[in-house]
Design goal:
heterodimer; A: alpha+beta; two-stranded antiparallel ribbon; B: alpha/beta; six-stranded mixed β-sheet; globular; binds adenosine-5'-triphosphate; binds magnesium ion
Chain lengths: 388, 230
């Protein structure tokens, strides 16, 4: 097929700056929306997927397997487990058994501040061994008895501390007690990055709580079945054993409807954008019907004309998509979303960007298809009479 | 064999239940090298005939042969290819592509033919020269006068060296002086390059450059007059 010169498509874009602005801007908004929705679901997915390690097992109050925050188990559980479960990982004389309290509490900066709900985890030193993805990035880990916090990097950002380490030294009110942030931790993008950790004993006192939420342990030989049979024999402890990865997978499943809702909303709005785009392109092509008839008269095939009009439309929408990707990387990628189980960041990664660009491309194709068809459907003599 | 042969050429348009037949059972021969002026009242079927000759419309019945090609039998794609080598079409409203320069407008139909860039350049330059508009080759249509636009459009129509040059009221939108120079240009192309021209016109004055004047009325030829050739 002999095609029309590419410059023809490019220069046609410049024919009406207003229309160009409209189609580039429209495509940018639609792609931005796609990026937000995809980045949101991707961020949520990622936070849960990279959370937990395959050989970590959580002991949770039986009946509360869905939610650590509701789980209550006896304080003595960690001691019993350490003494009676063989095959636990141990490093430098410390068993990988981590008794923890998980609470959602308001963190406020002062008396007038209502505070914002944050996930606080009370831990002992073994937590760093069990959750070995958690690393102190800046500062240090909290010391017991001194009401100190270490913040996940995302948790810091969600409270407006950019860069996260600027949060170190800040004091918050936690249930009326002042707590000082002494460090920032990272956890490979997992949920821990959205949490605050403090010493278990400090949190017990502040929250006046005498039960644990979970005992998480790392095994070295023992597996889930061993822990499940332990839970079954020690009915007095009312425990259930869940692999940490399973826990997060099930949590992700719980939020699937939310993700679906986000995607459906995005798709619906994007369709509205497509309809608007159709209109713009139709106006752009309809004013050129006579010109299109002339091109056909010279012998340009309909295919060549379709291709040129498509190029034009795709150029405009891709330009919008590129702008949206730029904005997405610069702005959206920084966004932090808070929800009941903590926070996660909108993640604009290569896959999400590819999706955004594909959406822009698709918008160009679909946006042009119907108008092109309507313009080429006319017999040539009729097209040549257009606008007379 | 004549360059253009129409036999029982008929074109009927259906508009709902009613049918209009602007061209009925037309027989017409046009020899190579002729300069034909096609006249007739509005609605008599002049444009319809021209469009059939150009291969942008298809006859409802009858046969049409141009330069040996049975045009009425060609499928859409074949017809498009046929047009690109055999037909040069000049419109009343020039129909230049606004985003292309004069040079690029003339070059456009050549892009449909296998041709080296240098050969294309030579052909475009020659066509612009032939219509005396070379000095405006870098101008866009909006920077040209109507007469200049039509010259570029004529260059575009002859650049492919087509078998037939068709023009639908080519001077309809031009003032008298410009129309005259346009007719002189067409006559020169006819005389010097041997171009076969079929031109629809309303203006009796323009017929003095043609060698044949055809009168169409209600889809039929009423008279075939031989005018004073230049
Ligand atoms: N696509 C079409 N559908 C229906 N009727 C048509 C169509 N094209 C032309 N006609 C009719 O055919 C008749 C002849 O039209 P045509 O354009 O050939 O006239 P013309 O001689 O070129 O007139 P004018 O001098 O006004 O340009 C007219 O009655 C017109 O309404
Ligand atoms: Mg007409």
């Amino acid at each position: 097929m002999r095609t029309l010169p590419f410059e023809y498509a490019v220069r046609n874009l410049g024919r009406s700056p207003a229309r160009l602005t409209l189609s580039v801007g429209g495509s940018m908004l639609v792609v931005l929306l796609v990026l937000t929705a995809a980045g949101f679901t991707r961020g949520m997915e990622q936070a849960m997927r990279v959370s937990g390690s395959p050989d970590a097992i959580m002991l949770i109050g039986s009946g509360s397997e869905e939610s650590i925050e509701r789980s209550e188990i006896a304080m003595r559980t960690s001691g019993v487990v350490a003494a009676s479960v063989p095959g636990l990982l141990s490093r430098a004389g410390m068993d990988a058994v981590s008794p923890e309290i998980h609470l959602a509490l308001p963190l406020s900066t002062g008396r007038d501040d209502q505070g914002r709900l944050a996930v606080i985890r009370g831990i002992e030193r073994a937590a760093w061994l069990v959750h070995d993805e958690a690393k102190v990035e800046y500062g240090r880990a909290p010391t017991a008895g001194r009401s100190e916090l270490i913040a996940g990097r995302l948790a810091a950002r969600s409270l407006g501390f950019e860069p996260p380490r600027s949060m170190i030294g800040t004091t918050f009110q936690l249930d009326g007690e002042p707590y000082e942030v002494v460090g920032i931790m990272s956890a490979g993008g997992g949920v821990i990055e959205g949490e605050f950790w403090t010493a278990l004993t400090d949190l017990q006192i502040t929250a006046q709580r005498d039960s644990l939420s979970t005992v998480t342990l790392r095994t070295d030989g023992a597996d889930l079945v061993d822990l499940q049979s332990f839970a079954a024999t020690r009915l007095d402890l009312e425990l259930a054993a869940v692999a940490e990865t399973d826990y997060y997978a099930q949590l992700a499943a719980f939020y699937r409807p939310v993700r679906l809702l986000v995607i459906v909303t995005a798709v619906l709005i994007a369709l509205g954008g497509v309809a608007g785009g159709l209109n713009t392109m139709y106006a752009a092509f309809a004013s050129r019907v006579r010109e299109i008839g002339s091109l056909q008269t010279f012998g340009f095939s309909r295919g060549a004309i379709v291709w040129s009009l498509m190029q034009e439309s795709i150029l405009a929408s891709s330009l919008g998509a590129l702008l949206a990707c730029g904005i997405g990387l610069a702005v959206l990628d920084q966004f932090v979303i808070r929800f009941s189980m903590g926070v996660f960041g909108i993640s604009i990664d290569a896959g999400v960007l590819a999706l955004g660009l594909a959406a822009g491309f698709g918008l160009g194709v679909i946006g042009a298809a119907v108008p092109v068809w309507r313009c080429l459907r006319k017999p040539i003599p009729e097209a040549l009479r257009a606008g007379e | 064999m004549a360059l253009i042969e129409c036999r029982h050429l008929t074109r009927t348009y259906k508009r709902g239940a009613e049918a209009i037949t602007p061209l009925q059972d037309l027989d017409l021969d046009i020899e190579a090298g002729a300069f034909v002026a096609l006249m007739g009242p509005s609605g008599s079927g002049k444009t319809t005939l021209l469009n059939l000759l150009a291969g942008i419309d298809r006859p409802t019945a009858g046969t049409l042969s141009v330069a040996g090609s049975p045009v009425h039998t060609l499928a859409r794609g074949e017809l498009a290819r046929w047009r690109s080598t055999h037909v040069g079409y000049i419109f009343q409203l020039y129909n230049l592509i606004p985003v292309l320069t004069a040079y690029e407008n003339v070059e456009l139909p050549l892009l449909l033919q296998p041709m080296s860039r240098s050969e294309r350049h030579a052909r475009v330059a020659a066509a612009l020269e032939a219509v005396s508009i070379s000095d405006r080759h870098a101008h866009y249509p909006r920077q040209l006068s109507g007469g200049q636009e039509q010259r570029v459009a004529i260059a575009r129509a002859i650049v492919t060296e087509p078998s037939i040059l068709l023009a639908d009221e080519p001077t309809g939108d031009l003032d008298r002086a410009t129309a005259t120079s346009m007719m002189e240009l067409l006559a020169r192309l006819n005389a010097e390059q041997g171009r076969t021209i079929v031109m629809v016109t309303h203006d009796p004055r323009t017929t003095e450059w043609a060698d044949t004047v055809l009168h169409l009325e209600k889809g039929k030829l009423v008279e075939q007059a031989v005018g004073g050739a230049a």
